[in-house]
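USER:
Try writing one entry.

ASSISTANT:
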Amino acid sequence: MKSYILIAFSIVFFSISLSSCTKPRIELDDSVWGDQAFITQAVLFKYTTVTNQLGYEEPVTGYQNTSVTTVSNIIDRSGATVTLVAAKGTDLTKIGIRFSHFAKKIEPLNGAPVAGVISDFSAGNFTYRVTSADGTVRDWRVKVSVAP
């Protein structure tokens, strides 16, 4: 009898505690954030092989995310362009790009490499669509090159 009461009490307790999860979601009004379809910073990066002993018999090999040195990094908000000039000798076929922004979404267009992923940037010119929380859309041109 006690086990039936305990089971009934458990069912009632869990039913009440889980009912709070079924409340309707409150939607945010994204329009209050205004036009934030701007890129504020762009950084090139690469993965460098690192080998450490770490106290094991065999060395452990991993990859470290390191910044690519740039000679010039110009962001033109009015023209919606980013110009990155990497240091002489940089291999543009094995780098990635990261953006800092206040937008809701950044998406590559026309075959541009996905941000945050090692890709081939040797083609030089790419377009990224930046969408602000209020729905403003701005296409940014990103040019990546190597210093002579």
Notes: The CA atoms of residues 13 and 67 lie 53 Å apart. Strands lie at 39-52, 60-67, 70-76, 81-86, 96-101, 105-109, 125-131, 137-146.
